[in-house]
Amino acid sequence: APGEDNAFDRGAFSAAETPAEQRLAAIIVEVLGRGPVGIDDNFFLLGGHSLLGTQVVLRASEAFGVDLTLRHLFQAPTVRTLAALIEDLILQMLESMSDDEASARAAE
Question: What pLDDT, in 10s, does the model give residues 34-54?
Fold first, then answer.
C-alpha cells in the first residue's frame, strides 16, 4: 500500500512545468487521491495499478483529445514521459490534418 515509508525522496521532487505536464499531474493526483506528483514519479510506484491506469488514460484522452491506451501508460509511466508522448500524438494528429481541419480543431 502507498505510504510515507515507500514514497519517493521528496528532495528530488520536480514539479510539472509545461501545460501538458501540469494537466497530466493533476489527473494523476485526482485518480490516486494523493499528491503532489512530480514529473519523474512513476504512476505505478505511487500505488497506481491497471484499473486506476484506465481512469488516467480515459481522463487524459478526453483532456488532450488524443487516443491513449493503457499500453501507453505502461510504456511511459511518468508525467514527463507520458506528457511527451501525448505531445507527440497531438503533433502527429495535427500533421495529418489539412489547414482547415487544424484551424477548426484549434477553435474548439
Answer: 888 999 999 998 999 999 999
Angle at 90 between CA 53 and CA 92, to 5 degrees: 120
Amino acid at 5: D
Report in angstroms the alpha-carbon separations of 84 from 9, 30, 66, 81: 24, 20, 13, 5
pTM: predicted TM-score of the whole model, two decimal places: 0.81
Looking at the DSSP bridge assignments, the partners of residue 78 are 42
